[in-house]
């Protein structure tokens, strides 16, 4: 079996198809040899990181994968999960006479067909023509103003998680209520409390309005900020492509299934990494996040700067979220995926590609993230 | 007809045209109307409302180590593109032949790279380009037999065991039949009708079940009726032909042999369907090969042998070669059925062939009915009723021994 799938893949590769597999089998080795000349000899006789990575894409016993040769057209989608991962929308700011910062965004709802897996189209509803919507980021205590324009054929709202007056809650029948097609409103409230929050449409049917793609991460930084890190946003989502409201057919982080398998997330060894993780999956009660060859500090909802746990796997119910902080002690390819493995095999799976030199063992203090308590003062 | 009749003055110049013109003219006009309709895209009709209707039937599933091969047919009105395939809730790598979109009634073969485990059930879903899902169940994964010499040999042995040998054994009752009084012959013929009626009902029930489940492009249960009607009419035609041929010889045994041959043909067509069921069950691994199966079929089909020789109870002694011919006609189709069932099985073909068996048996029953009439011309009298009931009960009881 193993032999058969490898042979097939190699034939596919020689035909010049942009196979993720080939990417893993061939350039990967070259890349690492180039980066890590000192360890080239060790890589040559089969470093452990290589065995893991190329095996994942083979199909059959080597794990789930999509049909060879097919790829999602990110240009047609208008967004690429690789870019989306590190995109934070800080909006426009100006200082009010009181000295306070006013931060403003415009979000436009629309209807857009997106490709969620190679060759599979999904009739999404979007904020600013992307799924998830832009990651809105601000600082604790600022005044926030979000202008919402409904360019969709359906009525929508924006409901923010956070502290705000009732009329700014973005639910039908309260304040501006439902915003009809062509209508608009402005939500205004204070940025509190700090942490990792969420915004989503609250029109009915609620499950559908969320599942169709009307959601995004909403980050309120603590006044003093968080320690410097390579930051990224991961919205764990899924698509019930046949609209039967029973589970999903496609699972992903940031919309495109297996995207980070095909384009691993490049990070540096020993460098602090911070993941803003949001579970916005509908039609399934839980989701989970697991990382290979590493552990992370878990800050649920990001509302405290003291982690509750040092772990490699967490579970989240719908709309739960967490800040995860970690460093990678080893170079190489490390998988991350839902440890609800059914989701993993239906698309919610990816790789970190950790650059830098290999080393034989992990130093005692492998990750210098700084002491969260110290930062808080 | 009417046009050439002098008593039909209506029609004018058209009616006096040659016959071929009268045939060709409407055909040409019909063709022109269809062409115009197609070219204009159905004037006055809008496109269908709503999303495309995507339907795929999985016509055949072949399992090889590490591979699942699905033969798909588009049974819906719109083209379908299979974008991805998941087995047991995991996306798999696969190859499609031919690639691309599947047009209406077109076929595509998918070869899935999946390490299936023997005996496990698998739920497969095909995810189309629109996000629709088409489900396919594999009840229990078993490697599909390769169509080699050994395989055909096994099917031939199986068909011989369950078809030819039991029928020939059943025909050994002929000397008994020939030694009993006429009245008892009628009982045996009634018994035969009971046996056949049970087989017809059995085939009908099985055919409707398979036909309803097929969901194929070429129809479901209607194929059962189509097969039955074709077989009935074809056998009636064969029977008329035999009747006119044999009766010219003024041979008293010829008429009895004709009836026997008709019974043998009917049972043979029924055994084709039976072989089909055995072969397909073998192919999907759900057939427990062994003594029990063979004994069960032997008991069941021995009664069929009895049915074949019942019409020969009176008249001249038939030569052994003729008896062997009757046995082969009735039993050998089981071999053919087993080979078809295990190699090219699909539900639509099975429904059609089972229908053929049902139609054939009904025709044979119609043939036999006159021979059980009593002096007053009644087909149902105490003796025949006893025979029919006994026959049905024998089939029911021996049928319990076999379940494929």
Description:
The complex is a heterodimer of chains A (377) and B (404). By secondary structure, chain A is α+β, with helices and mostly antiparallel strands. Chain A has helices at residues 2-14, 20-25, 27-35, 40-44, 48-56, 74-77, 81-84, 206-211, 259-262, 341-345, 372-376; strands at 92-95, 101-117, 120-127, 136-139, 143-150, 159-160, 184-190, 195-200, 215-221, 230-239, 250-253, 265-268, 273-279, 286-291, 296-300, 309-311, 313-317, 321-326, 332-337, 349-355. Chain A folds into three domains: 2-10 and 18-62, no CATH class; 74-221, Cupredoxins -  blue copper proteins (Immunoglobulin-like, Sandwich), CATH 2.60.40; 230-376, Sandwich (Immunoglobulin-like), CATH 2.60.40. Helices cover 19% and strands 33% of the residues of chain A. In chain A, the strands form four sheets. A six-stranded mixed sheet of chain A has the order 11-10-13-18-15-16, with no helix packed on it. In chain A, strands 1, 2, 3, 5 and 7 form a five-stranded mixed sheet that branches. A five-stranded mixed sheet of chain A has the order 12-20-19-14-17. Chain B folds into three domains: 1-45, no CATH class; 56-138, PCu(A)C copper chaperone (Immunoglobulin-like); 149-399, no CATH class. Chain B has helices at residues 12-15, 19-39, 149-170, 174-179, 182-214, 221-247, 252-283, 291-309, 320-331, 333-343, 347-368, 382-399, and strands spanning 56-64, 67-74, 82-87, 90-91, 93-97, 107-113, 122-128, 133-138. In chain B, helix 7 packs parallel to helix 10. Mean pLDDT of chain B is 83; it is low at 1-6. Classes of the chains: A alpha+beta (377), B alpha+beta (404). The interface between A and B is medium-sized, with 34 and 26 residues.
């Amino acid at each position: 079996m193993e032999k058969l799938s490898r042979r097939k893949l190699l034939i596919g590769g020689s035909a010049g198809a942009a196979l993720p597999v080939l990417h893993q089998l061939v350039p990967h080795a070259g890349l690492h040899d180039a980066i890590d000349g000192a360890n080239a000899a060790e890589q040559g006789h089969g470093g452990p990181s290589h065995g893991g990575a190329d095996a994942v894409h083979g199909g059959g016993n080597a794990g789930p994968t999509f049909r060879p040769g097919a790829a999602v057209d990110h240009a047609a989608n208008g967004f690429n999960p690789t870019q989306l991962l590190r995109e934070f929308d800080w909006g426009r700011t100006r200082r009010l006479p009181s000295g306070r910062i006013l931060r403003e965004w415009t979000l436009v709802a629309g209807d857009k067909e997106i490709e969620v897996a190679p060759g599979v189209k999904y009739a999404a509803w979007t904020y600013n023509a992307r799924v998830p919507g832009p990651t809105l980021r601000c600082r604790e205590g600022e005044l926030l103003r979000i202008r919402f324009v409904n360019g969709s054929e359906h009525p929508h709202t924006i409901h923010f998680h956070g502290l705000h007056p009732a009329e700014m809650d973005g639910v039908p029948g309260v304040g501006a209520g439902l915003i009809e097609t062509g209508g608009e409103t402005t939500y205004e409230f204070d940025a509190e409390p700090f942490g990792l929050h969420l915004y989503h449409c609250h029109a009915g049917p609620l499950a559908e309005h969320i599942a169709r793609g009307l959601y995004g991460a909403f980050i309120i930084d603590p006044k003093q900020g968080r320690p410097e890190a390579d930051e990224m946003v991961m919205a764990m989502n899924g698509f019930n492509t046949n609209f039967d409201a029973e589970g999903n057919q496609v699972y992903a982080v940031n919309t495109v299934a297996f995207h980070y398998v095909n384009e691993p997330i490049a990070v540096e060894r020993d460098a602090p990494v911070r993941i803003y993780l949001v579970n916005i999956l509908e039609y399934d009660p839980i989701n989970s996040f697991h990382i290979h060859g590493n552990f992370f500090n878990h800050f649920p909802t990001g509302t405290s700067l003291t982690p509750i746990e040092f772990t490699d796997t967490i579970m989240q119910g719908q709309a739960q979220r967490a800040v995860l902080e970690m460093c990678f002690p080893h170079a190489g390819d490390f998988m991350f995926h839902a440890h609800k493995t059914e989701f993993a095999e239906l698309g919610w799976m990816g790789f970190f590609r950790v650059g830098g030199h290999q080393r034989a063992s992990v130093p005692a203090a492998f990750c210098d993230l700084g002491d969260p308590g110290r930062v808080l003062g | 007809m009417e046009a050439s009749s002098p008593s039909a003055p209506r029609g004018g110049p058209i009616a006096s045209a040659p016959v071929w013109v009268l045939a060709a003219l409407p055909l040409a006009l019909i063709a022109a109307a269809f062409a115009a309709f197609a070219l204009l895209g159905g004037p006055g009709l809008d496109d269908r409302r709503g999303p495309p209707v995507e339907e795929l039937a999985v016509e055949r599933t072949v399992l090889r180590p590490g591979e699942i091969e699905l033969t798909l047919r588009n049974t819906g009105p719109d083209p379908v593109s299979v974008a991805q395939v998941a087995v047991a809730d995991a996306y798999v790598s696969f190859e499609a032949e031919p690639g691309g979109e599947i047009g209406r009634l077109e076929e595509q073969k998918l070869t899935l790279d999946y390490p299936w485990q023997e005996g496990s059930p698998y739920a497969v879903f095909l995810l189309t380009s629109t996000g629709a899902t088409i489900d396919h169940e594999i009840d229990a994964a078993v490697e599909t037999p390769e169509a080699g010499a050994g395989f055909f040999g096994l099917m031939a042995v199986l068909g011989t065991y369950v078809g030819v040998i039991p029928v020939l054994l059943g025909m050994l009752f002929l000397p008994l039949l020939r030694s009993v009084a006429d009245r008892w012959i009628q009982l045996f013929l009634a018994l035969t009708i009971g046996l056949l009626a049970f087989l017809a009902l059995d085939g009908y029930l099985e055919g409707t079940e398979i036909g309803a489940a097929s969901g194929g492009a070429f129809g479901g249960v209607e194929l059962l009726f189509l097969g039955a009607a074709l077989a009935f009419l074809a056998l009636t035609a064969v029977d008329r032909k035999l009747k006119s041929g044999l009766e010219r010889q003024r041979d008293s045994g010829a008429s009895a042999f004709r009836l026997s041959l008709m019974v043998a043909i009917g049972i043979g067509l029924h055994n084709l369907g039976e072989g089909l069921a055995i072969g397909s069950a073998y192919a999907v691994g759900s057939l427990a090969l062994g003594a029990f199966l063979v004994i069960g079929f032997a008991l069941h089909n021995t009664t069929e042998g009895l049915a074949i020789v019942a019409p020969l109870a009176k008249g001249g002694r038939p030569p052994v070669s003729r008896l062997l011919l009757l046995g082969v006609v009735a039993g050998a189709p089981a071999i053919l059925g087993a080979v078809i069932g295990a190699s090219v099985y699909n539900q639509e073909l099975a429904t059609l062939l089972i229908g053929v068996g049902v139609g054939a048996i009904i025709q044979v029953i119609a043939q036999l009915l006159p021979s059980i009439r009593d002096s007053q011309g009644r087909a149902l009298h105490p003796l025949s009723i006893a025979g029919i009931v006994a026959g049905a009960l024998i089939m029911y009881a021996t049928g319990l021994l076999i379940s494929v």
